[in-house]
Amino acid sequence: MQPVHAQLRLKPLTRYVFAALCMAGAHAAHAQAAQGQTTQAQATGDLGSVKSTATSDVDVAAKKAAKRESAPANAPTQSSLQATEPQSTISRKYIENNAAPTANYSDIVAIAPSVMNVDPNGSGLMESQALSIRGFQDGQYNVTFDGVPFGDSNDFTHHSTSFFTNQEIGSINVDRGPGDARQIGFATFGGTIAMDSKEPSAKPGLTVFGSYGSWGTGLGGLEFNSGTMENWGDARVMVGGTYGGSDGYLTNASQRRQNLYFKLEKPIGDNTLITIFADYNRLHQNVSYGATAAQIAQFGPNYGLSGDPTSQAYYGYNFDKINTDFEYLNIRTKQFNWTFNNKLYTYAYYHNGFNGADPNGESPNGVTTDTGATLPGANDVPGVEMNNNYRAWGDIFSAERDLGPGTLSLGGWLAYQTNFRNNFDVDDTLNFALPPSNPVLNDSMQDTFLVFQPFAQYAWKLPQYGLTITPGLRYVDFSRNIYTQQNQKTGTPLDYGHSWTKILPSITVNERLNSNWSTYAQFAQGYLAPNLNVFYVNSPSVSGQPNPEQTNNYQLGTVYKSDRVTFDADLYYIDFLNLVTHHTSGGVTYFANGGGANYKGFETEGTVSLGHGFNVYANLTLNSAQFKDGSGWVQSAPKMTAAAGLLYSRGPLDASAIYKFVGRQPNGYTDANGNNQPIGGYGLVDLAATYTINSLAPWTHDTKIGLQIDNLFNRTSIVGTAGNTVAASTPLFWTAPGRAVIGTISTTF
């Protein structure tokens, strides 16, 4: 047998990866410090192998008992030895024991390297206002649920308070890269936040839970698991629901939310599994658009909406009513040496929204801001009503088999989405009546898109070298169509459509050094079709509009995992050929060509078991996102992120103290002297503890008492930008929500 050091000498990829990581890590640290001095002076949708999730709870429990205190069992985030790009997996254990019961996926993933999230009303109590990965903003990365990509029709963005709740999420994988050829989605180059649903339990039970905490936040719910029903062919059913509400951290920014979810797994014979999933969500929320620096100074960092009915910021004029549903039917089967996987799905989003015409107080009452229509009363409050309704239908198919020295994967994604949206001025004082002097729509349109993404890839395995080399191709065909009698911005009719196509190559290499250690390298191209706003012109076919966003992504890294240690590190370089920038004014987002940009950085994360139930965790990233023309940093892209934590898991107690830091963010704002005013770095500390009583009474088990404290030291500084006001284009900001305490109790019958 060769000694380990002799084996490692045969691994050129490993030597290259480690040399690059060491050199670039040191260089990145030096460059970051130098840049700081200069500035101060101035999911997956992976369609891989099919497997049943109906594993034995007894086996799972035994494995968890044996590994409970290990680093992999307690790591808040960790990569995989099979990884071919940087990724961080967040387990159900972390979600249950550390995230607030009201948390959305955006709050949960905030712990991951290179991720920043701004949730100004408290965890899960408002849509995330700034969820970014490596500086890529919402709409520039992919979000999936059980492999299904979803997003808004116009710009592929997401609404974190709609669709899925904390209670139905089994795990989340944050892929920081475009994935291989199988990674379907709208905007994979910025990464993928891949949520997986919980598995139905093999044991029957009814779990009841309730939570209460700061700002009048309350949540109650239950979940029923049928267990394995032998008389029904070993089928399993899970049904759950929650009802929650909160006054919120921001003034007059309340939320009410109801959610139901259902999952059925039914084996057919030994080789086929049918899964049916459904989710229904109803939401009512009073929405703030941010506050000016003057408003924060006058009313405090928690200023959101007003209680004055003569103000355009009155909470009764600023609210959303949103209903969503999400369903799929999945059939996975092994036949004729092939593994087939087909998922037919649909989802819908219905949004009826109201807001004061200028909630930040720079426009007078009595006149509408969009059309200038005069209201019946000189002091009548002008407002806006909007509708944004869409439904998607899609199918995801894959076929996989071993062929020669590797595995062949074929498949594709087909999706069609319809969208209706309109916007019109109303008189808030007269119960949202149309202005009699000009009772017309500001805009109204119907649009559709059709996306087709077939793929093929081959995983060539060289076990004698520990190598898996996977080249692949994915073809993107994206078509948009719009029909409107009154187009947004122009106000003129338009009936137009256009298609964009692109072939996206990728190649990944994973080198397995031993059972605990691997390295990887990746090249892949990314692509994002233009936003719907390219059609908001009189003649889209001749107007100079943003081109599709295209990237070349280069990444390499290493992963080490044992019972004592989880560790991974990576370097990335992304050549952005056409970055589309955006800014928000009065709640409306505008896009423009930003030219080329380079994204690059160093990322690392790790957990070490200290013994006696203790684990220590840390991550660190140094990130750069700069325009190629030398005009500076991409806005709202943090220059670094970091996290550190101490976790305890032994006996009946699980506890943690975790600190997350986000570095300075360039934002394009200047002071009176023209000097740039970036948002300063900030750090927040969260505490959590859960105590489990195995048998509180003869008829109950696994009774849990939990406590979460977010923002322990009550830091309420400015943490993000919210765009600009309607009238004077005054900058708007978000602050960190103050300290929040919430307690939870649950038990299973």
Automatic annotation (TrEMBL):
One of its GO terms (cellular component) is cell outer membrane. Keywords: Cell outer membrane, Ion transport, Iron, Iron transport, Membrane, Receptor, Signal, TonB box, Transmembrane, Transmembrane beta strand, Transport. Residues 268-712 form the TonB-dependent receptor-like beta-barrel domain. This is TonB-dependent receptor. Coiled coil: none annotated. The keyword Nuclease does not apply. Residues 1-31 form the signal peptide. It is found in: Cell outer membrane. The lineage of its organism: Bacteria, Pseudomonadati, Pseudomonadota, Betaproteobacteria, Burkholderiales.
